[in-house]
DNA sequence: TTATATTCGGAGGTATGCTCCGTTTAACAA
DNA sequence: TTGTTAAACGGAGCATACCTCCGAATATAA
């Protein structure tokens, strides 16, 4: 349990630079829909050898996961900001819409993500925690203000949203997703109690 | 250009039998979580050569799609049955829950499905139509009976459901999905109008 | 400047997706 | 029943992608 780390040396600057390069190239490729791009190609575009890629990310899934997690963190960070700017229910709504936007515009890695056959459990468990922390705060605030029923499980909303992002095919899906957000908010209100 | 088909002969019986064998074996494998099973192995289990598999399904995606579509049809067929057995809103709710059950118990091919990198659009468009037909009927009935707001797009509900199925990780996800169905129904009601 | 831990990078082993084509077999006609 | 033929069978083999391994290069600390 003692997680002693002996950073005898500072991490090498080129190492970190290469790592970020790889991450950026991978994100760009996935966003462009090149989900099945060979790892060799990613390494080439990033200007590094294949060996370097594999040291940073032991396998394909690890790379996808890293890209995914980085974007996820940014989304999670937006929650407190929105909470400070809007009343509870609207903050929740805004964040859910942001979720949709994010997936739509910048992150089409959803298919790639689901391609993580097998190990999804662990990944979702980990990263789900991050997002859950974000939405938990928003929901808690909305419950406290009396706008939302107390028996709503934040994770339910998260799942619906995640689903929509996967279904991101066909024209007009984005407005459809926005509508869905409204339905979810309406369904969570205390009105009918 | 005239694509006249002259079915001079009936399709061979062994051909169809082999095709169904392959489909069953593939479904079983996917359901068992063996998403990455080599196609050679599927052919072996079905008792046919690899060449036979590839004639029926030109590539891996085609096989997955075939399995997917077959199951989808069965789900769609359940809609009219439920509509005949329950009042509109309850029929809708029941069908949505069935959707969840189906994915949960018998169809863990969701990850495989999403692995159809690239061509998802076409597939979803096609098969989405089938499901949409099913839910359209249910929603129309509920709208007609005045239970549900008229501005609900059935496809929205579909998307949320599809999403949940992808998020099928972690314990208790199933009850969570059921809760979500209730939220969606509640959010679609006319009460607040 | 010297020492050394860390990173780099690509050749190559392994395995999987898919093709090709000679052989086998079921359907049809006489 | 028997011959003809179009269609299905099946596996050897090629292309390619993932990943490992290890000598060379290099940034950091003394």
From TrEMBL, chains A, B:
Residues 38-57 bind DNA. Transmembrane segments: none annotated. Residues 16-75 form the HTH tetR-type domain. Keywords: DNA-binding, Transcription, Transcription regulation. It comes from the Bacteria. The keyword Transcription applies. GO terms for molecular function: DNA-binding transcription factor activity; transcription cis-regulatory region binding. It holds the Pfam family TetR_C_43. PANTHER family: HTH-TYPE TRANSCRIPTIONAL REGULATOR BETI, HTH-TYPE TRANSCRIPTIONAL REGULATOR RUTR. This is TetR family transcriptional regulator.
């Amino acid at each position: 349990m003692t997680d002693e780390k002996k950073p005898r040396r500072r991490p090498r600057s080129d190492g970190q630079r290469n790592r970020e390069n790889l991450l950026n190239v991978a994100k760009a490729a996935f966003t462009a829909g090149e989900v099945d791009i060979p790892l060799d190609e990613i390494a080439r575009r990033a200007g590094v050898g294949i060996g370097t890629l594999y040291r940073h990310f032991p396998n394909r899934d690890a790379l996808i996961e890293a890209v995914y997690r980085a974007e996820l963190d940014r989304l999670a960070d937006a929650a407190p900001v929105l909470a400070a700017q809007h009343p509870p229910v609207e903050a929740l709504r805004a964040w859910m819409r942001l979720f949709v936007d994010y997936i739509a515009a910048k992150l089409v890695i959803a298919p790639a993500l689901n391609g993580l056959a097998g190990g999804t459990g662990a990944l979702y468990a980990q990263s789900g925690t991050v997002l859950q922390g974000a939405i938990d705060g928003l929901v808690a605030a909305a419950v406290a203000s009396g706008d939302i029923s107390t028996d709503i499980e934040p994770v339910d909303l998260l799942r619906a949203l995640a689903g929509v992002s996967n279904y991101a095919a066909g024209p007009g899906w984005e407005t459809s997703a926005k509508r869905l957000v409204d339905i979810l908010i309406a369904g969570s209100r205390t009105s009918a109690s």
